[in-house]
Design goal:
The chain is an alpha/beta fold. It contains 19 helices and 14 strands.
Length: 479
């Protein structure tokens, strides 16, 4: 390790730091530098002993050498993350293995240091990692504040698609703009609505929701706009509609694609005039609400097919937020699974420490058609039924165990015909993953403009759009 003048510690409070490196000089140097800053430091030259210490969860930061005998740092990192250990991990690597360090960061490492590093470089990296950890804890507290008893925790995530969602939420929440949230069922659209309302200037006023698929058109109009006594059979008293009841607050229209054409026209007029008229009434009343709509269907496609009004679509689609399906949120499945497991273990007084690497690999390879809602329900079932202190592949439901992993298959069939089917499943899964990543990265490069993305990759726009529909990708800018 090279020397340079010492710099004062800027990451404040005492931290517990674990060093796992087979070079004794690295552990000794880290102890000397960091102990002098008031931190508790312990080091191991044996990677297996270091792994056991790391799995205890007693450390804030783990400095982990990438190249070690017996078990390499990447495998140690995977074991730490699969066990749900919250420690931040900093990879120590030689110049020749920087690419491997980047791979480690894709598996959850917070940062890396290249050998030889100076005391100053060590302190700077630790400062950055500790600040990031503190920020994540603050974000977790914020997310916990946003939770509601009847909802599900679908707003946790560190993947690039979810960071984009969080960024949009932060920017749109203080505004008065109408928001259209799209995404498959179970992705957490209602949680995003509640978060936006909680972060808005209307947070001290009502947030009311209406499921547009739950009522017949006549009853839906009464629910939204209200009615006067005697306006239709069963209207025995005058009723205030949701547009009035949500005054100065937020009105959430869920599954807005299910509105009839007639109701769409009436909704459009309300949004344009900011005035509402009860069913059977002649007088109009001013309203002051912020509207958020959501759907799991492609409204632009419905407009093209004549099933949704184009003028209403543009009124609703002022700020679009697309919630990606779970299989596109690379890296979020372990975070969500461990969060749910912790909650359900506490709720049911269970002591399950986490998932084995093999079980987590199966979880990450499964396509999750029910998205976060399905993951939550399955983890709750496992937390209740599992009789071990760690979740293994045999504790997972059959549909997850049957899902081929990206790199290996847990159990091979004995017969050739079954093996040929398995090979095709693995090929299909790999191709689908690559296609989805190809589209997503192209869209991100072009700021989610479909025409630019299609041109960028050399595809016809119609073919690009067809692939997007195949994987449930919804554009923010269509042309």
């Amino acid at each position: 390790m090279s020397d340079s003048p010492s710099v004062s510690s800027t990451f404040g409070a005492c931290h517990r730091i674990l060093v796992i490196d087979d070079e004794a000089i690295i552990g000794l140097s880290c102890r000397r530098i960091l102990s002098g800053e008031g931190h508790e430091v312990r080091s191991y030259e044996d990677p297996q002993a270091g792994l056991q210490a790391a799995l205890s969860g007693d450390y804030d930061v783990i400095l982990l050498d990438l190249m070690m005998p017996g078990i390499n740092g990447l495998d140690v990192l995977k074991r730490i993350k699969a066990a749900g250990v919250s420690s931040e991990v900093v990879i120590i690597t030689g110049h020749s293995t920087v690419e491997s360090a980047v791979e480690a960061m894709q598996h959850g490492a917070a940062d890396y240091l290249s050998k030889p590093f100076s005391p100053s470089q060590l302190k700077v990296v630790l400062e950055k990692v500790c600040e990031r950890s503190a920020l994540m804890r603050e974000n977790l507290l914020l997310r916990q504040e946003l939770e509601v008893a009847q909802g599900f925790e679908g707003i946790i995530g560190e993947s690039r698609p979810m960071e984009r969602v969080f960024s949009l939420m932060r920017r749109v929440a203080p505004s008065e703009g109408t928001v259209l949230i799209t995404g498959e069922s179970g992705t957490g659209k209602e949680m995003v609505v509640r978060a936006i309302h909680r972060l808005s200037r209307r947070k001290n006023h009502p947030l009311l929701a209406c499921d547009c698929s739950a009522l017949a058109p006549t009853l839906l109009e009464s629910e939204l706009f209200g009615h006067v006594k005697g306006s239709f059979s069963g209207a025995i008293a005058t009723k205030q509609g949701l547009f009035e009841a949500a005054s100065r607050g937020t009105l959430f229209l869920d599954e807005v694609a299910n509105l009839s054409m007639e109701t769409q026209g009436k909704l459009l007029r309300v949004l344009e005039t900011k005035r509402v008229r009860k069913v059977g009434d002649t007088a109009e009343r001013e309203i002051d609400i912020r509207l958020i709509a959501a759907t799991n269907r492609d409204l632009s496609e419905m407009v093209a097919e004549g099933d949704f009004r184009e003028d209403l679509y543009y009124r609703l689609n002022v700020v679009p937020i697309y919630l990606p399906p779970l299989y596109q949120r690379h890296g979020d499945i372990p975070i969500l699974a461990m969060d749910f497991l912790g909650r359900f273990c506490k709720k049911n007084d269970r002591d399950i420490k986490g998932f084995s690497p093999e079980a987590m690999a199966q979880m990450e390879s499964y396509r999750w058609p029910g998205n976060v809602r399905e993951l939550r329900n399955i983890v709750e079932r496992i937390a209740i039924l599992c009789d071990h202190d760690r979740i293994e592949p045999q504790h997972l439901p059959p549909e997850i165990r049957r899902s081929p992993t990206r790199s290996t298959v847990a159990q091979l069939p004995r017969e050739w015909e079954e093996f040929k089917k398995l090979k095709q499943q693995v090929r299909d899964a790999s191709v689908q993953e690559l296609e989805c990543r190809f589209l997503t990265e192209a869209l991100e490069r072009c700021d989610f403009n479909v025409s630019k993305a299609a041109e960028d990759v050399g595809m016809q726009r119609t073919n690009f759009h067809a692939l997007m529909r195949k994987y449930g990708l919804t554009p923010e800018v269509d042309s």
